Structures are given as structure tokens and as C-alpha cells.
Amino acid sequence: MTTNTTENTVSTAAPLLEVKDLEVAFKTQQGEVKAVRGVDLTVYPGQSVAIVGESGSGKSTTAHAVINLLPGTGKITGGSIKFDGRELVGAGAKDIIDLRGKEIGLVPQDPMSNLNPVWRIGFQIKEALTANGVDTKQRRQKLTDALVEIETTPSGDDLYLGHEGKKALITALGNAGVDEAAVAAADKALQVGSTTRAQAAGILESAGLKDAEAVAAEHVTGASATDRVAGLLAEAGLGDAERRARQYPHEFSGGMRQRALIAMGLAARPKLLIADEPTSALDVTVQKKILDHLEGLTSELGTAVLFITHDLGLAAERAEHLVVMYKGKVVESGPSRQILKAPQHPYTQRLVAAAPSLTSRRIQSAHAAGIETDELLASHADSGAQKRGDNVVEVKNLTKVFRIRGSRPGTGTDFTAVDDISFGLPRGTTLALVGESGSGKSTAANMVLGLLQPTAGVVEFDGQDITKLRGRKAFQFRRRIQPVFQNPYGSLDPMFSIYRTVEEPLRIHRVGDAKAREKRVRELLDMVALPASMMRRFPNELSGGQRQRIAIARALALNPEVIVLDEAVSALDVLVQAQVLTLLNDLQAELGLSYLFITHDLAVVRQIADKVCVMQNGKIVEQGPTDQIFDTPSQDYTRELLAAIPGASLEIGPEVPAV
Amino acid sequence: MPDAPQTTYRPGQAHFFADLDQTPLLGAVDAPDETSAPTSLWKDAWLQMRSRPLFWVSAVLIVLVIMVAVFPQLFSRTDPSFCDLSRSVGDPRAGHWFGFDFQGCDVYARVIYGARASVSVGVLTTIGVTILGVLIGSAAGYYGKWFDIVLSRVTDIFFAVPLLLAAILVMSVFSTHRTVVLVAIVLAVFGWPQIARITRGAVLSVKNNEFVTAAQSLGISKPGILMRHIIPNAMAPVIATATVSLGVFIVAEATLSFLGVGLPASVVSWGGDISRAQSVIRTAPQLLLYPGGALGLTVLSFIMMGDVVRDALDPKARTR
Predict the structure, then answer these.
(1) Which of A7, A148, A168, A399 would be a feasible disulfide site paired with A456, CB 3.0-4.6 Å?
(2) What is the reported pTM?
(3) Which domains does chain A have, with CATH numbers?
């Protein structure tokens, strides 16, 4: 049984996972493509290690190679993977299947698609238990029978408390005359299906029971699978676990599903847990809670964790050892703190410089040290020159109510997506609308864009109420405000060439003749730093960041005054994100644009916004200048959001590492 | 090259960084790839199709069938309606490779000339069905609300009526003027619901894309967005289904002619010939075999082509 490794036992322990010179290749129509080229990686028992890299760097492929779950045509073409002393490359399929779940658990990336919607949560976790041959009632019974003979053995690590056992323990406590408060505390601490015999003995003892060990040995005799499921869900941080186990995945939120997946990954008490971007699909505050919980749980169980993430800040905060990958190779690895402080490889330096979470931390420490932070910011720098004081967009008491259909006609209920919000966007500056999913920020943006009629309130653009615009005037208004959306794969028409995409606004608004339009398209592509030769290409040939730049070019085509950026950089890799943010800032300085920046990511806000509005449940709970919100937040919710930025516990100086 | 250890590292976990020569930073962040040739959906589809033998087999067959339908005189010099009863059910001989039918007409010539009726009904019906189906389906999917409810129910009603049964009923009303165009119209009127349903589904999945919202915020009108952005993106499954259903409509025409409610006897068609071969099936089965074989081959080639096209246009199969 693996126990917590502490610093001094370190050098003697043998590695749990040792990957040497790993090569993975995919077969494609163009021939073999090497996705992983000579990767070395070592994980010690109980240690947390993170693989960091952008999409396509081979980080997930490396992790999947360990449990031989490579997608499609992927194949390990060289190197060795040693787990707990055993060689996995070339091992039989059965051996690896035995290993999965039992010794190496996996928490997958997307909680939405990784639970089977037709089975109850409890059933799926039970499946994970039985598939790994643990903790079915029968096996427990056999084990207990065996244990009766060697009852003197103190080890009770493998036996869990069943729900009858718990009742018996509480009764025993009552009979022993323990006072009520202590019984209640013990009742809370004893978790069916999760508390082991040794732990139970400890709890009983602290409740004041004399022969605690004997009582625990008598009643903690193994839990049924149902009890174990409840225990696992409770461990993963789901309250009311027994009821939750009977629910279906669609009744769970994203965060709850991810917790269920964590419960599943840890069901068989593996020695290593691979967490593949475990929280990137979740809201920031949920992200932090889940990662905190996972950290506590794995350190308690002594499980080693292999994180896979694109966020260097998150990786450095959660792992002691970092492995930075780029184009299938490890470019740098070492202790997290050392890599953050003195990144050696230029790619790592770029990453350290670009990660929004780290930048945000840097600004914070700079503020604490009383240093001017302009050079750290993507924005702010020259926007002051354009400030003319007036608000280009003024939103007053804006409300949007959606009617939600009930099960029968006439039983619909009203849902207030945006609840009486007011804010102003000063000309030439950036206003960030921050909130979690469902906070109403995108609904508000769509009303500002004039795509959605508000239920109440006004949106004034340059003093003109746009909700009352009709016909020709409404059409003219479109030229002045343009959106850029989140999903780089959905925001460009796949049937339109880049030229047609960027030219469309000009054509629709009858700007210039064909020749003038082509000139303008070239100019726009140049503005977003893309070569004019891209014109003949189609969106499917472009990367996410390039598509987003095309979307910005399209938005700029008509020389708008305001651009609404709806999570415009959220789906991009950090380096690309930093690049797009810089581009946006340059464009703002050059063209005097005003941005309404909608995001859930406060780290990015710090770099780009002048003013911040924090939204929760359709209301603006706090608004003010960015520095004020970050340095002296007045609302708990804002503080919670700020605390959720990864890297809060890192010690980062204000200086950017030299690139 | 490992760094000089400053703190205690566990074996294999010392601070390491790769040699820059081995791991060069490849150009600027997110630099566009300008080396590959530009491609589009259609070009990709073409590249994929042309590597499949099935595509070439069906393409050659379809081209052949269409050639036969358009220029039958290139393939046979015999007049298909020149019949001589003295040659009734005559054996094949030089110049008359398939022999003679019950009426003493040349079977080869009739098979060649029969292609025109079958293929024209197939093509015309498919065009009609696609126009009707795309219009109704995209309107239902795009405008939604009550418009969708009404159109979808109408689609369901037509879907519930069996194509052939309805066509037989309507065709039997017309005892005269049974032409290729009439048969095509009747089949199209009862054949559109499938395309309409597919179009509606495709439109529903396309219309929630952000490029549609972007088009709205450019001020493009609703019909404009439908025509410019939504229908072109929803066409792939429609084209694939239409290609397959072309074969189905050729069969439907043959069935109608076989039952005597399709094209009149004066028009040479495979369906009519199959019908007439029925009476001598025991004594001269080859009379059924030739028009039936031609029909089967034509339908098969269109269905094979439909399969290949569907695979090539399947968005899930598209990489990059």
C-alpha cells in the first residue's frame, strides 16, 4: 500500500512511472506522423507531475500512451514505459486492461461526454468497481472470513465501513455513554463506503470510546458496492451521496459530473491518476474547488497525479514537477518553482511570459511593490490618449426575461437572464463583463449588438436608443458595432473563402467597387497580421487563432466604433491568446476602438480591461476600474472569482523573465 | 543537458532543458501555413472520391447510361419500334445480339432506347424532389415556431402516404397524356418529404453556428442568410440522399409502367418491356433479363455513387 511520500523518504523510493525515450506515431494519408518524439518522464509515488504544452504538443498523446488508449491509428513506435517496475510497451492487452482503473486511474477532459447518459451515476461507478474486481460484497466477505483468523493484524486499510456497520458503531457509542455532541461528530466523520477500519478506530477513539480498535474491528467488516459508491461520491465532494448515486448524468452540472468522474477514477484506489485537462470545461470557481478537492484527496490516499494542462500557472500551482512539451518533444522539465523562476528554453520563457494567470499574478505583486505596471498590460498603455470621457455605449436598466416552456401548455415559467443592469462603455476603452456561464453576460452582449430585443431598459449608442431602430437606420447602425465570437470553428462560414468572408460586410453594405473591396480586404488581412495569400484559402485550413484573427478582420471591415468580443480568446492556447490580445490592443490604439469584452477568465481581464463589471445570476454585483476590482474587491463573489485564478499561491515577482 | 543540481533532485527529475538545436521554435506564434495548396469542401471531397475504385466504377457506368439516354442512335441503328411478328421470340443473331421479343422487336434496340425514358424520369424527379424538399425543409428549419410545426406536419402526412400507391392512384386518373414529365411530376409531388426532413435537420444544426449570428449582426436579411450561408452548408447530406433516391425513382417509373399506369406502350421504356416480358416468362426468360438487367445496373450505379458522395461529404470524415 502506498503511503504519503514525504520529502525525506524521497531519494530512496523507486519511480512509480518511468517513461524513457517514448515515441508515438499516427498513420495518416500523408504517411506516418510522429506525435511524440523521445519523451522522458518520471513520476514518483504520491508525487504530482504536470505535462504542460499547447494543443498538438503531444501532451495528451503521451499520457494516453501510458495506458495504451491511443486514439485511431496511434502506435507506440519506440522507447519504454515502466510502471511500478513492469514494462508496459509490448505488454499484452490483458495486462494493460488489468492495469487500467486498478493501478492507473483516468479523469478525462470533457465531463459532458464521458458519462453514459442512459445509466445512473451509481451504476457507472459500481461498474468501475466491479470491472477492477474490488469491493463487491462477496469478495469482502471472503476477506473478512480470512481476517477473523488473523484478527490481531492491525491493518484495516482495505476494509470499509458498511452502512449496517455504521449503525452498529453509533449504537455502540451511545451504549458506552458518550455525550451527544461527540456522537454527532462521529456520525459525520464516519463515511459509509469510505472510512476504513483504521480510520474508524481513530474516529471512535477521539469520540471517547475506550476499546475503539476492537469495536471497529467488529463492525467495520467491509462495505457493499452500493455503500462504496456512496463513499466514493462523498469523497469526491458530492453532498447527499446516496441520493446522487441514483441520479442520471443529465441531472448533474458540469462540476458534479467531473466529481463523479473523479470518484470513478479513484474507485479502485489506483497508484497513479492521470488527469487530462480535468477542469478546462468548467467554470473558474468550480475549477478551483475541484482541483483543491482532488489535491486533498490524492494526498490523503497517497495517489500520484499526472496532470495534463495548457495552463502553466495551474500546472505550477498543482504539481511539484513540470514537463514542458513542444511539438512532441520535452523542451524543459524540472521542479515547478525553478522553471517558473528561471525558464531556460525559449519556448518555456514564452509560456511563462504569456500565461494570463501568471501575468495577473505579476501585476498583483507589482502593485504590492508599488511599481507601475503598464508594460505588463496588453491594454491601458496608450488608451488614455483616446479617452474623451463620453460613453459610446450606455446601458440603462436592461432586463431580458425568457419564457421557459413547461411540461404542459400554459405551465411555462419566466427566467430572468439579465436583471436590471446598467453600465457605460467609455469611448476608446475596454469594458469587461465578467461572470460564469449562465450569468447573463452573453445575453447582455446580444442586446447591445441589437440581436435581441430587451424586455425592458435601453441600450444607447452614441445617445441613440438602438432598441427602437428599424429598417434603414437599423441597417446603418450595424456598421458601427460588430461582434467577434468564442468558437473559432463556428464563427466562419466553412463554404466561404477567406476573401469572401472578409469581403462580405463590404458587399452587404455596398462599400466601393470590386477593386476597392479587394484592396480593403488586403489591408484588413494585413492589420490582423495575416498574409494576403490567405485570401484564397478556406477556414478549415486555418488554426483556431488564425480563424479568430479572420473574424476580427471581418469585424473591422466596416470601420466600427465598438467591437463586442464574446469570449473571443477563451478557446485559444495561451501563446495564441496573448498574441490575439496584443493584436486587439494595437488595433484599439491605432483605430480608437472601444471593446466590450465578455469573459469568464479574470486573468485575461486584468491584462486588457480598463473597467470591469462582475455579473452573477443576471445582475451586476460589482463594477469599477480594473485595478480597483482586483486590488480591493468589495463583494465576496468577486473575491471568489479572483481566488479562482490559478497560481494564487505562487510566489511570482513583477518582472517578466527575459525572452 | 542537465543543469548542475542545486537542490536535491530525485533521480530522473533534475532540471532539464532541451538543446535549442534539437527543438527549434518553429517560426512566429501561430504562423499560417502557406505551403499547402488551398482546398475547399468540394476539392477535399473530390480528392477523397477519386481514390475510391467504387467511384470510378459507378462514374463510368453513369456516364455510359447518360450517353445511351442522350444519343441512343450511337449504340443501335435498329428502330426499336420496328417489329416483325415472324421473328417473335427469335434467337439472337448477327446485328440483333439480344434476340427478339414477343412482338418481334429487337431487344437490344429496345434496351438502348428505353434508357432515355427511365433516366429522364429519374433525373427530373430528383431535381423536382430536391427543389421542393429543400424549399420546404429549410423554411421549416430556419423560420421555426408555428411555421415549422405546420410544415413538419404536412411533411409527415406526405411521408405517411406510400410513394407508389399514391402515384398509381394519381396516374390511373390520367388515361391520356402520360408523358415522362407527368410521371416525374407525380413522383416528385409524393417523393419530397425525405429530402425535406433531411434539409430541416441540416438547417437546424447549421443555423446555431456563430457565423450565422455574425451575418445577422452585419444586417443581412433573414432570407439572405438562409440563401447565402445556411443552405450551402446544409447541402451535403441532401446531395448524398438525392443521388441515392435517383435510383429509387427509376425503379418507381419502371414499376408504374409495369403496372400499366406509367408511360404508354408507344414510349419505349424498361418498365414497359419488363411488363410485357411477364407473359412469356416461362418460355423466354431472357426477355425479362435484358431490360431488368439494364435497370438494375443503372440503379446500382446511382446508389453506389450516392454512397461515395455521402462518405466524401460527411463532415465527420473531414480532417485538418
Answers:
(1) A399
(2) 0.79
(3) 7-115+252-352 (3.40.50.300), 137-230 (no CATH), 373-462+561-659 (3.40.50.300), 491-559 (no CATH)
